[in-house]
Design goal:
The complex is a heterotrimer of chains A (about 260), B (about 100) and C (about 350).
Chain A lengths: L12 E5 L19 H14 L6 E5 L7 H4 L3 E4 L5 H11 L4 E7 H7 L1 H10 L4 E6 L29 H4 L5 H6 L4 E8 L3 H19 L4 E7 L13 H12 L3 E3 L3
Parallel strand pairs in A: 2-3, 2-4, 4-5, 5-7, 6-7
Antiparallel strand pairs in A: 6-8
Chain B lengths: L4 E9 L9 H5 L5 E3 L11 E3 L8 H5 L5 E12 L20
Antiparallel strand pairs in B: 1-4, 2-3
Chain C lengths: L3 E4 H11 L2 E6 L6 H10 L6 E4 L3 H13 L3 E6 L1 H17 L4 E6 L5 H5 L10 E3 L4 H18 L3 E6 H5 L1 E4 L28 E2 L5 E2 L2 E2 L2 H19 L3 E4 L6 E4 L4 H14 L4 E6 L1 E3 L3 H7 L5 E4 L7 H9 L5 E3 L18 H14 L1
Helix pairs in contact in C: 1-2, 1-6, 3-4, 9-12, 10-11
The chains are: A alpha/beta (about 260), B mainly beta (about 100), C alpha/beta (about 350).
Chain lengths: ~260, ~100, ~350
């Protein structure tokens, strides 16, 4: 079949999806080809807009490739120290309880550097939403192992693959959070295909909705692809996520204990 | 009338922003996206569209580079089958008919 | 408000509440702990929030968040706890978030830790070292003002004596002048307008309104601290105009030194005393002027010699600078030991005089 023109909007059609989300100031970013983070960014911006929270939300963002959402999204942001976002978000929320407060952190930020911060927040039932973008690697610093790197995964500091004897096991942050008394909602999503993306958006929406009803601490983990950090060809990211990551970090809503 | 590819939607592709990750190719449910031979100014191949789009927005959902606007036609277009055309033919044709 | 007899910790916490502090977070660490306990009683419901944080790092970061959201916020600790907070103090200096740190130290006068930072980047921490509870009350309110005036974290250097001594004090609100509105503070309200706010050490700005970036921003911060250094030096000097010997000390040590200087003057020795009230910015020019006639400058501090570095810089070699302090801790490790007595200080000063 012949190639169709795709350079201009067609006549007789309605736009049903746009390159830029409502709250998105620019489509330009410097993340790698095939990175899952920009998809998660978009879902977050869409949920905030759909829940009419744009002028009632503050984001607290950690350190990683994803940090640039601070420039791309038209909402109030505080960019904070590695691992500390849940504590910073606690201070913000206690001063502005009527505002939706969320953190956006990578697995390196939350599960390595900041594990105690998020667990204490969950125990306290802080009415914030913590979001962990989990690609099992410190991408921004070149691809080292984190507390979420799965057994067998090759990184710059586990070149032959994570070996439990030498490197121990990954930390299941979402499961730990689900055990905390103050936690109201925990889910783990992924952005490897359109179906999982749709589910992840629902999880994020649910988490924010529950925050606004004052139910307690809400947590969404989003598995994202990092083909660069995984030493893979770009298009292989989604498959690797399913065959490797999802075995250790199964997606779905996680029952509260 | 015999044959024809019903096309319910289409996309506008920002070729220059594409980084050639090919995730849209796998995501496209009707399988109407394929990668170009040509390179954009950053040196990446980019997606090309053939008839049959359903405006399912899967490409838009998976694209990390915000490359796609997705459109749904008020009336679906049917493109005539081209039995001798190779999948890599680069020509663009106007739609043969509208049902 | 009439003056009342109050213990230092109570006086400081009351003065903080009077100053409008509405968010407090900390981790128990004597002699700061009573401050945390007081604030947890005082900041409830509409008056504010006090968090007993699970660690110093979490406490100071909660304070950073609250302050970035526009509240007057404070924390505190000492020694090892302040060490843990250095990263966040530096971060707040660089992303211009104001809060107060009550450093209530133990037996060691941790001057380096307060003034040399230990965080990252080109920043300084305005540090006020009160000599007694009355001054601590005054400094508490002044610190909240300075923090907001300069949009930077600031520190009180107090200690066990200040925390646990009773003194008659007046914690009424003081007016240090009007401050600009905190329209930089995050409250979500400008989201979706194209002018949403951002607090970021790297000051990259938004895609539609780029910031100056880290290079220009960090140079601006360094220049800000130069301006603060010019404007905020404070000191006290006694009988230095004709002094042969000037004794320099800070904080709780100063009243002991002043008492000894009075005694020695009565005995005919031309001795004077000087103390920086601001440990940073250190009053270099004032110290240089106060030591013009001195043939020797003596430095008394309860540590192995820390402030003496700044004294030497100020005296700039015009006359010798001699350390007459030392490490001295009581048996509990919580407060200064036997060296912080009038007798010990007197004997060290006389030893220096007789040695010349």
């Amino acid at each position: 079949m012949s190639i169709l023109p795709t350079d201009a909007p067609p006549a007789g059609a309605t736009k049903v999806a746009a390159t830029k989300a409502t709250l998105q100031l620019s489509e330009d970013h410097h993340l790698c080809p095939g990175c899952g983070h920009p998809v998660a960014w978009r879902l977050l911006m869409e949920v905030i807009a759909e829940l009419s929270l744009a002028d009632k939300v503050i984001g607290v963002v950690g350190h990683g490739c994803y940090t640039n959402i601070v420039s791309l999204a038209d909402i109030d942001f505080l960019q904070c120290l590695h691992g500390r976002a849940p504590s910073v978000a606690t201070g913000v929320k206690r001063v502005h309880p009527e505002v939706a407060v969320f953190t956006l952190q990578g697995d390196g930020d939350m599960s390595s550097e900041g594990l105690q911060e998020v667990l204490h927040c969950a125990a306290r039932g802080e009415k914030i939403t913590c979001i962990m973008l989990n690609n099992g690697v410190f991408g921004d610093t070149g691809g080292q192992m984190t507390s979420a790197t799965v057994v067998g995964q090759r990184t710059k500091t586990s070149l032959e693959g994570r070996d439990p004897e030498r490197h121990g096991y990954p930390v299941p942050v979402a499961e730990l959070v689900s055990r905390m008394p103050g936690t109201a909602y925990v889910a783990r999503g992924a952005v490897n295909n359109a179906g999982s993306i749709a589910k992840t958006k629902r999880y994020l929406r649910r988490a924010f909705e529950m925050q606004t009803t004052g139910a307690g601490f809400t947590f969404v983990e989003v598995l994202t692809m990092c083909p660069t950090g995984w030493f893979l060809p770009t298009a292989s990211g989604p498959e690797y996520m399913v065959t490797t990551f999802e075995k250790t970090f199964p997606p779905g809503e996680i029952a509260r204990d | 009338m015999t044959g024809g590819v019903v096309t319910r939607g289409t996309v506008v592709i920002d070729v220059e922003r594409c980084k050639g990750c090919e995730l849209c190719i796998a995501a496209c449910r009707p399988g109407v996206l394929s990668m170009s031979e040509e390179l954009n100014t950053s040196g990446y191949r980019y997606p090309l569209l053939r008839p049959g789009c359903t405006a399912c927005q899967a490409c838009h959902a998976v694209c990390p580079d915000y490359v796609f606007d997705v459109f749904k036609y008020e009336q679906p277009i049917v493109y005539a089958d081209e039995p001798s055309a190779e999948p890599d033919a680069g020509d663009t044709h106007d739609p043969a008919e509208v049902h | 408000m009439p003056a009342r007899l109050m213990q230092g910790s109570d006086a400081i916490s009351e003065a903080a509440v009077t100053a409008g502090c509405s968010f407090f977070a900390g981790y128990p660490m004597l002699p700061f702990t009573e401050l945390l306990e007081n604030m947890s009683r005082r900041l409830t419901g509409p008056t504010g929030t006090c968090m007993n944080a699970e660690s110093e790092i979490e406490g100071v970061n909660m304070v950073l968040g609250a302050a970035a959201a526009g509240a007057r916020a404070a924390t505190g600790s000492c020694g090892q706890g302040i060490a843990l907070m250095q990263e966040a103090i530096a971060e707040a200096a660089l992303n211009e978030v104001p809060f107060v740190v009550f450093n209530l130290a133990r037996g060691q006068q941790d001057y380096f830790q307060a003034t040399r930072g230990g965080g990252w980047g080109d920043y300084r921490t305005i540090t006020l070292a009160p000599k007694d509870v009355a001054e601590a009350v005054e400094h508490t309110q002044l610190l909240f003002h300075l923090a907001d005036l300069y949009r930077s974290p600031v520190m009180m250097y107090g200690d066990y004596l200040i925390a646990h001594t009773y003194m008659s004090v007046d914690v009424a609100q003081k007016d240090y002048g009007t401050l600009p509105a905190k329209d930089w503070a995050l409250d979500g309200s400008l989201g979706g307008t194209g002018h949403s706010r951002q607090v970021w050490t790297w000051r990259m700005g938004k895609a539609n309104d780029p910031g100056v970036g880290p290079d220009r921003h960090w140079r601006y911060i360094a220049e800000k601290f130069e301006r603060i250094a010019e404007a905020e030096q404070r000191h006290e000097s006694n009988q230095t105009d004709d002094a042969d010997y000037v004794v320099v000390s800070f904080g709780s040590s100063a009243p002991f030194v002043d008492h000894v200087v009075e005694e020695l003057r009565e005995d005919g020795h031309r001795v004077g005393s000087f103390r920086p009230i601001t440990l940073w910015p250190f009053p270099e020019a004032a110290l240089a002027a106060a030591t013009q006639t001195a043939k020797r400058v003596l430095v008394f501090e309860v540590n192995a010699g820390q402030m003496i570095d700044d004294v030497r810089l100020s005296v700039a070699g015009r006359c010798p600078v001699t350390f007459i302090g030392g490490v001295s801790v009581d048996s509990s490790g919580m407060r200064q030991g036997d060296l912080l007595t009038v007798e010990a200080i007197r004997s060290r000063i006389l030893e220096a005089i007789e040695g010349d």
